[in-house]
Specification:
Strand content: under 5%
CATH architecture of the largest domain: Up-down Bundle
Structural class: mainly alpha
Oligomer: single chain
Number of domains: 2
Largest sheet: none
Distance between the termini: 19 Å
CATH topology of the largest domain: AhpD-like
Number of helices: 9
Order of helices and strands: HHHHHHHHH
Number of strands: 0
């Protein structure tokens, strides 16, 4: 049964929103076919939604030495550690689609260290998890290990930024009790 509540906070109706946010929602209806609840929730503060979307698109869809699937692996690994229901569900769906693997997200959610990843991807996810659990312990040795797997400094920067972004968004989603769209549960399966 679909969940009716999006957040424990007020979620504005579309007619309350500025034209550019309504246009963003219309674009979402074209692809992926629905408005992600995270957008609906962030629309409580339209300027914050604009900033959120701009940063998300830069980090997750922009140019990077990390594939889009690898960035989704980080999102899922971090969200699993933080127990973020919304992001595990929505980015699990994105990872299934981007990787073409219907079980990879489930493996990472259950235990990223046991997931069927390449050594390079394990190093990437392990570092993202370390940043999530104890970022103050990051060291030169961690960076050297990533370089040993072929990551450039720009790639390492992207790993750090994606992990940090999801640590932020997980906390927002958890505090607001943000609920994923039901559509995310079946995408890519």
């Amino acid at each position: 049964m679909p969940e009716s509540r999006i957040s424990r906070l007020h979620v504005p109706t579309e007619d309350e929103l500025p034209d550019d946010i309504q246009a963003l929602f219309d674009k979402c209806r074209e692809k992926p076919g629905f408005v992600p609840n995270v957008y609906r929730a962030y629309a409580l503060r339209p300027e914050q939604l604009r900033g959120f979307v701009a940063l998300y698109e830069t980090l997750m869809l922009g140019d990077s030495g990390l594939t889009k699937a690898e960035r989704e692996m980080i999102a899922v690994a971090v969200s699993a550690i933080n127990r973020c229901y919304y992001c595990q569900t929505s980015h699990g769906a994105a990872l299934r689609i981007r990787s073409g693997n219907p079980i990879l997200a489930d493996q990472i959610q259950a235990n990223a260290r046991a997931a069927a990843l390449s050594p390079r991807q394990h190093a990437m996810c392990n570092f993202a998890i370390k940043l999530t659990e104890a970022s103050y312990t990051a060291s030169d040795a961690d960076i050297d290990e990533l370089r040993g797997h072929g990551f450039t400094d720009a790639d390492v920067w992207d790993i750090i930024q994606v992990a940090a972004f999801f640590n932020y968004t997980n906390r927002v989603a958890n505090a607001a009790d943000l609920r994923p769209n039901i559509e995310f549960h079946t995408l890519g399966r």
